[in-house]
Amino acid sequence: MCGIIGTTKQLGEHKIDEMLSEIIHRGPDEAGTYFNDTIPAHMGARRLSIIDREQGSQPIYNEDGSVAVVFNGEIYNYTELRQQLRADGHSFETDCDTEVLVHAWEEYGKEMPKHLDGMFAFAIADETAESIFIARDRIGIKPLYYSFHEDDLYWASEIQPLLHAGIDVELDEEAIYNYFNLRYFSWPQTPFSQIRKVPPGSSLLYEDGTISTQQYWKLESTEHDGDIDSFADQFRTMFEDSVKKRLMSDVPLGAFLSGGLDSSSIVAIMSEECEKQVNTFSVGFEDSTYDESNEAEFVADHFGTNHHNITIDLDSMDLFGDVVAQYGEPLSDPAALPTLAISEYASEHVKVVLSGEGADELFGGYWYTDKIPRHQHALRYVPDSVFQTVRRLEPHSPVRRQTLRYVSALENTDTAIRGVVQQFDTPPEEYLTLSDPRGENSLDSMIAATRNNVDQDTFSKRMNAFAIKHWLTDDLLYKVDQSSMAASLEARVPFLDHNLVEFAYKIPTEYKQNGYKPVVNQAMKDILPDRIRNRDKHGFSVPVAEWFRQDHYAITKWLDYDRVASTPYLNADKIHNIWAEHKQGADNSRILWKVLTYVAWYHQIAADSITNTSETMPS
Questions:
Q1: Does 2 participate in catalysis according to the annotation?
Q2: What's this model's pTM, rounded to 2 decimal places?
């Protein structure tokens, strides 16, 4: 696991070292650089040594030194690939997975990502072809940012190195509006119009001062035939294989354990496969309403793990500034706080953890999987005009506005997806100085694009596509990557093996409803206690609603009226009214956390880098 940076602009060693210093947490063990003025290419990597710790220093080259790679991630099929490439005439100098990339590039060219099984973001410099090739894994587990600026390409694992590369950046109004809709920045957008994300399952080729992009993977939605038993059997076989692959390591590893179905399934398989006692790590909350540490302890006891638990309370808001400073873009997910805390604690014991992200999106773990289709069916004879009337009346209602938003969202598939994505919350234009731009990357465009990933135009199918393409990648996986790497900890996600994702995506909707993740539940019935399989989904909730009613410095500092007023696009009067309503008993915590995170991000990271601050300030 590493962090990578690079550019085709000849910035010099000092600037490259400066960019690398911004991601030292991603690779504290060592650094390496590459300079080639022929292509041109200046790039580097920070390394967290996991496999072949002695020989895996980066960059790594091909036989004659004409091809070099910097790489972040793990290639789980590297042993098989190495055997095949050796049979094709390539020679290897190390036992690390990174080296297969340079030879795979020589053998397969732009098609090479299709041959990789893993999580990855990498850059390959080819002196002979005078080209740069960068690629990101299929699901977007590993981040990869880029900027094409004045005919030069820049790339990095995080945004901060790009801000230090001398690129002039401006705030992206459409992206920021979308953030207040979504609570995250969805690819290709970032808060800066000059910096983009490489989409999951895509690559970018730089040649002759131009760039071209290619999508090398997409989900196919044709449904499998079968019943619950056959799907459960197939899942179990594939899941066991996925967990086994992710136990590949030359350093100690463990697992995040919540006590829910997903993390408990991972720990169950690890306990069978690992010779040593498994280390598990969980988060508890001082507020018993949110605490499920007793469930994690039950699972740990059942499987005999070496269990560790930390407790989160209001004092943990002391970490808020660290969380925001670590993230190059705002992420309004309160779970980022405990995720960073548990990552820091786990890193004192292990260098790799397995985590359960992806199971809810793939197997039907969210409330809306069942409820919205049932409610839409019950209201199927209600004329569209009734839903539209409710939508017009909602802003003027003194009570139950969120309920009215939910009812109006049941009108059709598009409105239902929009409602879920917005969490049926207050529209951003009610507290921003921006209105919905409705451009090519708007929420409406993202929702419409889900039709390209389904074989049936239903809410369940298209909501599932949206959750996998956007929410999973740019909230859940971004959160885990940034938090774990801030602590120099590698997180692996067994549910997101791309073969397992492709399989799960084709399971008929009926086997993702009528119960909580029925395929996973059925598959694990012989190994998990009934207490775990039968409990309701708890979720990783944080008691921020209560926190906003108290005066912790991290909250009052960033929601100070003058500070909010000096942050682009925010209406300070309306936001302080929202906060006052919350203190009086309303639940506006989701809006307030979005604002809190955005304000702190802007003043800690963005303000010094933006070239158009005066133009973007609200009047």
A1: yes
A2: 0.94
